[in-house]
Write a structure and sequence with these properties.
Keywords: Cell adhesion, Cell junction, Cell membrane, Disulfide bond, Glycoprotein, Membrane, Repeat, Signal, Transmembrane, Transmembrane helix. Its main location: other. It is found in: Cell junction, Adherens junction; Cell membrane. It is built from 5 helices and 30 strands. By secondary structure, the chain is mainly beta. Among the domains are: 119 residues, Immunoglobulins (Immunoglobulin-like), CATH 2.60.40; 94 residues, Immunoglobulins (Immunoglobulin-like); 86 residues, Immunoglobulins (Immunoglobulin-like, Sandwich), CATH 2.60.40. It has a 6-stranded mixed beta sheet, with no helix packed on it. A 5-stranded mixed beta sheet has the order 13-20-22-25-24, with no helix packed on it. It has a 4-stranded antiparallel beta sheet with strand order 12-14-17-16, with no helix packed on it. It binds 2-acetamido-2-deoxy-beta-D-glucopyranose (7 copies). One 2-acetamido-2-deoxy-beta-D-glucopyranose binds next to loops.
Length: 499
Amino acid sequence: MELFAGMLAFLLALRVQGVNGQSVQMDPSKSGFVGDQVELRCIFVNSNPPVKISQVTWQKLLNGTKQNVAIANPALGVSVLPPFKERVGFKQAAVRYRPPSLEDTTIVFSNLQLSDEAAYICEYTTFPAGNRENMVNLTVFARPMTRMTLTSPTIVARAPKRKTTVATCISANGKPPSVIKWDTRLKGEASLQEYRNPNGTVTVRSNYVVIPSRETHKQKLTCIVMYRSERITESVVLNVQYEPEVKIEGFDGNWYLNRQNVQLTCRADANPPVTIYQWKLLNGSLPTNVEIKNNTLFFKGPVTYDLAGTYVCDATNSIGTRTGIVDVNITDLPINPTPENRNGSLEQPSTSAIIGGAVGGGLLLLLAAILLFMYMRRRQRTFKGDYSTKKHVFGNGYSKAGGLPAHPPIPKVLHYPDDSDDEKKPDQIGNTGGFEVSERNFDAESEDLKRPYFTVEEGESRDYEERTLAFQYDPQPEIADDMISQTDGSVISKKEWYV
Ligand SMILES: *[C@@H]1O[C@H](CO)[C@@H](O)[C@H](O)[C@H]1NC(C)=O
Ligand SMILES: *[C@@H]1O[C@H](CO)[C@@H](O)[C@H](O)[C@H]1NC(C)=O
Ligand SMILES: *[C@@H]1O[C@H](CO)[C@@H](O)[C@H](O)[C@H]1NC(C)=O
Ligand SMILES: *[C@@H]1O[C@H](CO)[C@@H](O)[C@H](O)[C@H]1NC(C)=O
Ligand SMILES: *[C@@H]1O[C@H](CO)[C@@H](O)[C@H](O)[C@H]1NC(C)=O
Ligand SMILES: *[C@@H]1O[C@H](CO)[C@@H](O)[C@H](O)[C@H]1NC(C)=O
Ligand SMILES: *[C@@H]1O[C@H](CO)[C@@H](O)[C@H](O)[C@H]1NC(C)=O
């Protein structure tokens, strides 16, 4: 750019010289910031024989109007006119000498003002050649004040949802005007206003507008102001307050009689955090054996029909109160999973599952057991099991949610001890992990439940507890004939099993 400007000046000078033999050399353009000091160069290139300089006049040209700035006269001396008197002077002291040297009449502007922006003419009056002049354009820049402000330190998300200006970015009194952009993941809109000041500067202002919500909380918002080649960024992180979003965890659809240690937990997402949790039972009062700790209802002792009802949790923060609801009903027997929901969640147990589990479960299991037994008999000579290698691992992931017991075990393999006289007598029941009730107790309590059970080696109950989250219902892969699949996904050799 400067090279180009220099070349232009040279060409201009050449042109002037070419015609007349004398030239006035100036920069074609010059710029500075408000408050800066700038030099406007003016060099007279004389010829041979030299002409006589009778006066040098600097003029400001604005809107087609010329205004004298400074004059240097070999006989009368130097004169700088108001309003430039304070801020303009000739650079070379030789201009003031008697006799002066007027070849270099460069002037210096100090404390540049916006109003100094204009074209400046440097005119040489000579004898006998007449006038020679050239011109420079002076541009004055004003650096803007840039700032970003949050509309308020915290924004409250309230219903009805409405658009809210969350941040404002201002680049004030800049010349040339800034460009404002936003960088954010927030879904919102930017508005833009430009205001032109009388002194030629421009104030650019942009508002960022979003609908405040839970999703906008903690989002980062960056304003990018581009002024000439500069890039200024400022960021804020939104703090959006919203009322609690509530759900009740802990009811897995499988609260059966005598189940132990059930609980309901009121989970709330809120900003600021929830200060009050209130539990209610619709159309009734909370059972007496319930203990409330923070946001959790602990039901002490075994499950009874009295626990059934609609539980309501009101969670309150400073923004508002929202309610979570869960319908708890009690079954008299555990619900077994059906193939459709074997993969874990029992959130919506199908009717068939409930009926199958509660009523027909026992019969179905018995049937399955007999079929399996017969099948085994056909495939092998004897079945002398050492069941210590058997592992039955059950679980559905509910224990993740607040350490609740998983739904009851799934009868995978039925087992009647060879030496048992009473084929209908149940063996032990596989318990569920995280459920801190000993299997023996459970057995004792469910002694009256005349249904077949299935085995878990007692010595493995610890091991078993650790595995409850890992149970897989996936169909067994094809395995070699002499391998027996285990419910934990592994296989063992028949030899090992049947020895
Ligand atoms: C100086 O400015 C005037 C008007 O603003 C323009 O016409 C002219 O071309 C400019 N000269 C140079 C050398 O940039
Ligand atoms: C220059 O002219 C424009 C209109 O042509 C006018 O608005 C402006 O005020 C003038 N500036 C000066 C310094 O006279
Ligand atoms: C230009 O005008 C604005 C508004 O009147 C003022 O705030 C600002 O300081 C001015 N800028 C300069 C460089 O004088
Ligand atoms: C609960 O009681 C209210 C009136 O107090 C009644 O309108 C509502 O039907 C009742 N709900 C149930 C499930 O009994
Ligand atoms: C529950 O409340 C007790 C005090 O009552 C407190 O020490 C504990 O941190 C709270 N737990 C949770 C998860 O809020
Ligand atoms: C439990 O309640 C749900 C809805 O509240 C209902 O669909 C389901 O049939 C009930 N189950 C029993 C066993 O009553
Ligand atoms: C069970 O879960 C696994 C992975 O968690 C998934 O690939 C598979 O499709 C699920 N099966 C059914 C029947 O939902």
